[in-house]
Amino acid sequence: MKTMKTDLAARTPERARHASTLTTALAAAIAASLCATALAAQPAAAPKTSAATATRAAPAGPTQAGSTAQAQTTSAAQDVARSTVTQAAAAPADASTLFERLQALYPSTRFGAIHPTAWPGVFEVAMGANHAYVDATGRYFLFGHLYDMRQQRDLTAERKDAMARIDFGSLPLADALTEVRGKGTRRLAIFSDPDCPYCRRLETELRGLDDVTIHTFLMPLASLHPAARGKAVSVWCAADRIATWQALMLRDALPPQADCPHPVDRNVALGEQLGVNGTPTLIAGDGRVLAGAASRDQIEAWLSRSGEGAASAATGSGAR
Predict the structure, then answer these.
(1) pLDDT per residue over 175-186, tens digit each?
(2) Closest to 224 in 3D by CA, of 202, 264, 195, 252
(3) SS3 helix, strand, coil % of the chain, rounded to 5?
(4) 250 and 193 in one domain?
(5) Could you read off the pLDDT of 87-141 as tens digits, one per residue?
(6) Which of 78, 100, 101, 80 is nearest to 89 (CA)?
(7) Based on the number of CB atoms within 10 Å of its own CB, is 17 exposed (0-12), middle (13-18) or buried (19 or more)?
(8) Would 254 be classed as within a structural domain?
(9) C-alpha pair distances (Å), 271 with each of 39, 139, 179, 200, 290
(10) Bridge-partner residues for 289, per DSSP?
């Protein structure tokens, strides 16, 4: 996993400014790409000067008269086409018509879901993992966050949070270490690396968590921790997986080396498929994602939220 090679432990102001700079550059690149595709789609303008010179140079014979009539017909057709586009752009748009309009204007750009926003006449459009806001004509794009100042809500962050959710019911829980605490009412899945220091810090925070069912997917990051895969396999092959895992993470007690049929490689592939870019990564029962070694209080508050229309949870102190 390429992104897993980056140590996310140091969440400093400099890193935040760097991320902001990258976001701005990415938005500029997307905007430039849209402009380039729009220009490429426009027909080339006819050389007016040379055409006028040719007309003055010779009398209008049969062939030239035919060319002139054809040019007039083409010009009239272009005027009709431009008028049609202008009328369509001026007409009210819904998501489906706007999607077709954007595809016609920018054929080289792959557009995803389009949704109306609370801002009249402005639509949210997805372009891969990126979001933008566009007017009904498809001409004007805005890259950034949309805020509801009355309710003090970051609407863009809420949409990204909703789109980043993972279907908890689709997780192959049989491939995870499962521990039920208390009634186990709340559900929590964790992607964890046995040699990740932040994963070990998280296990310490989780000790006081109650009324929860924890599914731990062993996901060693071999590029960062070469010995982690062997430890993960040995934990899975232990007679008491939970006790062996906790002994390793809390007391650094190495498990007896063992080998057996295991899901470790499947878990790594699953993490890549779900976009898990580092460990630890937590997934709540409603699909919300929390990356990093959050504190017990943060996790308690995060699990207690319904997640309906709420902004992203605070990110933990690190992921690796």
Answers:
(1) 999 999 999 999
(2) 195
(3) 45, 15, 40
(4) yes
(5) 444 445 688 899 999 999 999 888 988 989 989 999 999 887 688 999 999 999 9
(6) 101
(7) exposed
(8) yes
(9) 40, 38, 20, 19, 14
(10) 283
